[in-house]
Write the structure tokens for this entry.
Amino acid sequence: MAIESDDKLLISSREPGRVSDLYDNAKLEALYVDGVGQILMGSAVSRLSFFSTLDLEDQKIGVLVEKRKLDLKLVIPTIALVEFAAGILASAISEREAITGPNKALNESIERAMAIIKTASPANG
């Protein structure tokens, strides 16, 4: 794979140990998913499966059951996944008011993530 003339430079990093240029792939298609179906973590690589919700089915037990189908499987170095997760949490916490607004569920989700971090912190163990 090569850098094409219509690929735009997004980020240029020159930090010690992380010297890279990140280009946008102009031909890359975006794929929407509704959530994460599975996460399997290993010491070298991790596997994530993402799903879309297809339908709600009445099971005649008073509960609607979501019918989900995996749309994307991703294999990523575990260290990159951990750095990605840390970046997401850091952004969610620092931009909390801007991204949650009146979204109570998102705000509660960030609260739960912060509680997990505090509980898992080496200072608490």
Q: What stands out?
A: DSSP finds three helices and five strands in the chain. The first strand starts at residue 9 and ends at 15.
